[in-house]
Amino acid sequence: MTVVADTARWGKYEDYVPVRGERMGAREREHARAQQHAAEEYIRRTAAGGGSTAEEPARLAEIRDRGDLTEAEYQRAEEKLLG
To answer: What residue spans carry the region label Disordered (predicted)?
Structure first.
């Protein structure tokens, strides 16, 4: 994403100013990978029958609170758990 710079205000600066740095994109990709990994891990644990059903809502809430599940994903998973 770029923004046109106000040349009167910025004087000697060029026409475009980069807004999004390379590291920001790398952090976003890493966060997306972590979210995907957490969701896949939860699915594996659930499919394998690990843990009691009573513990699952707490695990789901923990994953949601970390930001690895959206509220909509959390609601769908909780509905499936509670039947």
So the answer is: 44-66
Neighbours of 34 (CB within 10 A): 13
What Rg do the C-alpha atoms of the chain give, in angstroms?
Answer: 21
Write the Ramachandran bin of 80: left for phi over 0, alpha for psi from -120 to 50, otherwise beta: alpha
Please work out, in degrees rounded to the nearest 5, the angle formed at the alpha carbon of residue 63 by the alpha carbons of 78 and 76: 25
Running along the chain, 83 residues long, what does each successive block of 10 average in pLDDT? 49 53 84 89 75 77 88 87 77
Query: What's the pTM?
Result: 0.40
